[in-house]
Amino acid sequence: MSLVSHTTPKTVAGRFVQGLAAPFANMPWSVTVAVLVLVTVALVTVFARMILPFEFDQMDLRARLAPPVPMDGSSLIHPLGTDKLGRDVLSRLLIATQTSILLALLGTLIGAVLGTVLGFVSAHFGKWVDEVISTLVDFQAAMPWFIIALAVLAFMGNSMTVFLLLMGLYGWERYARVTRGLVLAAREEGYARAVHALGGKPRTIYLRHVLPNILSPLIVQLTINFPETILFETSLSFLGLGIRPPMTSLGQMLGDGRDYMITAWWLAVVPGTIIFLTTLSMSIFGDWLRTRFDPSLQD
Amino acid sequence: MSLTYVCWKLLRAVVTIWLVVTFVFFILRLTGDPVAQLLPDDVDQNTIDHYRRLWGLDQPILVQYWKYITALFQGDFGISFRDGQDALDLVLSRVPKTALLGFTALAFALVFGIPLGVFAALKKNTAFDRFVMGLAVFGFSMPNFFLGILLILGFSLHLRILPSSGSDSWQHMIMPVVTLGTSFGAQIARFTRSSMIDVLNRPYMRTIDAKGAGTSRKLYLHALPNAAIPVVTIIGLKIGELIGSAVITENVFAWPGIGRLLTFSVATRDLAVVQCILMMIALTMVLSNLLVDLLYGWMDPRVRVGTREATSR
Predict the structure, then answer these.
(1) How does residue A82 score in pLDDT terms, banded at 50, 70 and 90?
(2) A209 is in which domain, residue-wise?
(3) A15 in a domain, yes or no?
(4) Which one of A136, A155, A169 would you mutate to disrupt binding with B, by most B Cβ within 10 Å of its Cβ?
(5) Distance between CA atoms of residues B258 and B280, nearest Å
(6) CATH number at residue A69
(7) 20 to 30 Å CA-CA from A194: which of A35, A119, A264, B200?
(8) What is the rounded average pLDDT of the residues B13-26?
(9) Is-contact B142 A276, C-beta < 8 A?
(10) Quick one: pLDDT at residue B218?
């Protein structure tokens, strides 16, 4: 199933729409569904505060542990039920999704920028700089980063900066590795040499010419890293070490809901499902992107 | 595989462990006085001073570091702040349970992942292939803590056929092993498939066909050994991830291993125990990577003769 038909639209607007949809043509239905989920998650991330039915931390002790709508005793006021303090699960879910996605985005971006820059630096300067960065890359890959993050967070306490830093440092080495290899290869190619011969400064060559050419493998790396960063955050928050009350994230909600599995299973299942759907959609979309960027994988 | 190659790898392994130990030492010391956090608020200064002296926390940090490192070489990992037990003994007493869980989950992942990956590759682009790969995407996208909770809801609370926590019998192992092994198995399946497809497309497979070798001979003698090389590498790379998941899995199922001890010690700020566990984990990771490197060298003749290109791939 594809989103766009292949007949040429008659109106300008129609052509414009088709132009926008062109990259999504010939998408398998699973990818279409994945993209729809990701778009929904993105919209929630942006508009969570506006579509909130209740304040996410507003308590109502008389309406504690109300079940979600299709179940007995539920009410439309709290479509996804309430938690142990009578807080609206839907509202909490929206804010939690926003927090988790924003954190994962920031963490992924920090790692991507840091890794890419170090990859460029490593490839440009070579010699001892390259040695040092490559060694750092190897060490980062050999460290049990999740476990170290867990210990650091437990001892450092509730600090958002530290948490973000730990997330940013998670996975940077992969971008560095990819970038370094690609830049080294790209430098030997005709176009980079041509710009160099025309008197282009290294910065111009790297930013205007090499970077756009190596962008697609980096984006693919991004799609691999993003779900992993979500899992990194949610796992730590699940253990009670990442995002802590009064703030909430999907992992924190799930960890909280775990204590009520007998009486209120939805408290754990609802946020868990959102995490799962997001990482699943990102993986499906990433796989599709990878085969599109690299046709050799298409067999 | 030359001696220099092995020595270089060994040296790197030692330096990595040293880096982890140092990093963790300073980070954890910088986060405040563990004594103040451990003792109740109303104890007098003398008691605090006593414990600070007892644990050597009154000295400058570099002196503490030096003492810590030299003690490590004598096998002294310090004592648990909580009950005065030897930290190493405490950690080692938990190792068997974690090893049992970890190795069973690894076996589970390999037993399911490799055959499924191989068959998916052989039946490339059929419904079976698509089904297996779809399953694999589900498998590795599923957060293990959520899978664990779903299993508990289904099999312990709803069907009431499996225990939700503890480690007394083989029934206790089923859900933790599935929780820990699923994501790993899914990744192995995907990797085996692409590696297998890659090998099957190589020119030497056509040579083997031309020689008139039977299908099973072709598969077991030529395709599988070659496809196994990258799969072994990926197993090595993912060991760290497996350990991280084990911590979560042990917490979900109250499995009395290293992971539970870690979250407990971290919560009670038991510095010596946390450090000991982190060092053990780093050691495990580094050793398994080393093992994979050596195995890789043994399996891949290009590495054995020491071509730099093949090793740095």
Answers:
(1) confident
(2) 27-297
(3) no
(4) A155
(5) 10
(6) 1.10.3720.10
(7) A119
(8) 84
(9) yes
(10) 76
- Lowest mean pLDDT, pick from A96-100, A293-297, B117-121: A293-297
**Overall domain count for chain A:** 1
Does residue A19 lie in a domain region? no
When pLDDT is cut at 50, 70 and 90, the band that residue A1 belongs to is very low
Of residues A13 and A46, more confidently modeled: A46
Is A81 domain-assigned?
A: yes
- pLDDT of res. A299: 44
Q: How far apart, in whole angstroms, are the C-alpha atoms of residue A123 and residue A116? A: 11
Q: What is the pLDDT of residue A106?
A: 92
Question: How far is the C-alpha of B297 from the C-alpha of B269, rounded, in Å?
Answer: 42
Determine which of A143, A156, A223 to mutate to test the interface with B (most B C-beta atoms within 10 Å): A143
User: What one-character-per-residue DSSP string does chain A give?
Assistant: --SS-SSPPSSHHHHHHHHHHGGGTT--HHHHHHHHHHHHHHHHHHHHHHH-SS-TT---GGGTTPPPTTSTT--TTSTT-B-TT--BHHHHHHHHHHHHHHHHHHHHHHHHHHHHHHHHHHHHH-HHHHHHHHHHHHHHHHS-HHHHHHHHHHHH-S-HHHHHHHHHTTTHHHHHHHHHHHHHHHHTSHHHHHHHHTT--HHHIIIIIIHHHHHHHHHHHHHHHHHHHHHHHHHHHHTTSSS-TTS--HHHHHHHHGGGTTT-THHHHHHHHHHHHHHHHHHHHHHHHHHHH-GGG--
Of A138, A142, A150, Cβ closest to residue B285: A142
Shortest distance, CA A253 to any CA of chain B (angstroms): 12
Q: Look at residue A9 in the predicted model and tell me its pLDDT.
A: 61
Q: How confident is the model at residue A108 (pLDDT cuts 50, 70, 90)?
A: very high
d(CA A204, CA B42) in angstroms, rounded, equals 63
User: Using CB atoms, which residue from B138, B143, B194 is nearest to A235?
Assistant: B143
Look up the pTM and report it: 0.85
Is A220 among the domain residues?
A: yes
What pLDDT is attached to residue A111? 92
Tell me: the pLDDT tens digits for A252-261?
989 888 888 8
Distance from the Cα of B220 to chain A's closest Cα (Å) equals 22
